[in-house]
Amino acid sequence: MEQSLFTSMLFATLVAGTPLIIVALGELITEKSGVLNLGAEGTMAMGAVAGFAATHYTGNPYLGVLAGMTAGALMSLLFGLLTLTLMANQVASGLALTIFGVGLSAFIGKPFESLTLQAVPAIRIPLLADIPYIGPALFNQQSLVYFSWALLGGVIWFLYKSRAGLILRAVGESPSSAHSIGYSVIGIRYLATTFGGAMSGIGGAFLSVFYTPLWVEGMVSGRGWIALALVVFATWRPLRVMAGAYLFGGVMISQLFIQGSGLQIEVPSQLLSALPYLATIIVLVLISRNQQTIRLNSPMSLGQPYRPDA
Predict the structure, then answer these.
(1) Contact 170, 189 (CB under 8 A)
(2) Per-residue pLDDT for 310 more than 60?
(3) In this structure, is residue 309 part of a structural domain?
């Protein structure tokens, strides 16, 4: 019985943390270029409704993921147009993008609110899935869970082992220096922002196609904001992003297990539902006390507009 409970909680934690990993890693790449995009919540909402609609009409969940990725990329291109080309304030534009995405997704999703999709089967890895306790949780998962692990490895390699990653980090640290040696700062930032938006779209599509699978207005439920907080929590380091995502995923799942266990706990269910967000605030407060760590790891030009000299 204990093995079954542990396996179930581990499985659910991995699933709950997956969209956070995907979105946060996308935002990490965006911020490494010096761009601060606070529109992840709205971008996830657009990815969720686009992914659900595409899956509903085609019957193919992976086309749904592609649709969600495309919707997220388009949203980020809109953000890039405002902030990189028109030089609008990045914080204000990101907040506007969130409001726009949440509202537009609710409008587009009205016809789909009473519909459900067929559950996407998990992919079982032979032999590894038979390992006691952890095997069924780690190796009998949704395809996007495996994708999040591959994405983590790809981001680590890109940032720290590739020339392109070095250029991206240089742009985030000193855009004027990167421009002076011939790199297109605006072009690189556009690419990084588009990648971040595409990952947010995939994260949203995961929620509506794989996780639930259905569309409900407000289903993102603050996950975009948690993903943004994860980047700071991880001090812009990919491995810490994964650890933080599973930490918050575990908090999300634990309150559901507590509510569903039938235990007589004198705690309002609303407080239990708020635990992931309370944990986010507490962690950010603790991290913000160490300003030296943040200064050492955050891109120097984060959130600062850059206009190359003619």
Answers:
(1) no
(2) no
(3) no
CA–CA dist 147, 153 (Å, integer):
10
* Residue 188, CA atoms < 13 Å, CB-side half-sphere: 24
Residue 294 has pLDDT above 70, yes or no: no
Residue 25 pLDDT exceeds 90: yes
- Which range, of 97-106, 149-158, 183-192, 240-249, averages the lowest pLDDT? 240-249
Residue 262 in this model has a pLDDT that exceeds 70: no
Domain-located, residue 228: yes
Domain-located, residue 302:
no
Q: What are phi and psi of 210, to 5 degrees?
A: -105, -40
Q: How far is CA 115 from the centre of its chain?
A: 25
Angle at 110 between CA 222 and CA 96, to 5 degrees: 45
CATH, residue 23: 1.10.3470
The two structure tokens encoding residue 22: 């995907």
DSSP state of 212: S
Task: Residue 89: give the domain boundaries.
Answer: 2-297
- The 8-class DSSP code of residue 120 comes to P
Provide the number of structural domains found in the chain. Answer: 1
Longest dimension (CA), the chain: 69
Going by C-alpha positions, the residue among 208, 186, 302, 257 that lies closest to residue 11 is 257
pLDDT reported for residue 277:
75
Q: What letter represents residue 9's amino acid?
A: M
Report the alpha-carbon distance of residue 62 to residue 268 in Å, rounded. 39
Q: Say whether pLDDT at 23 is over 60.
A: yes
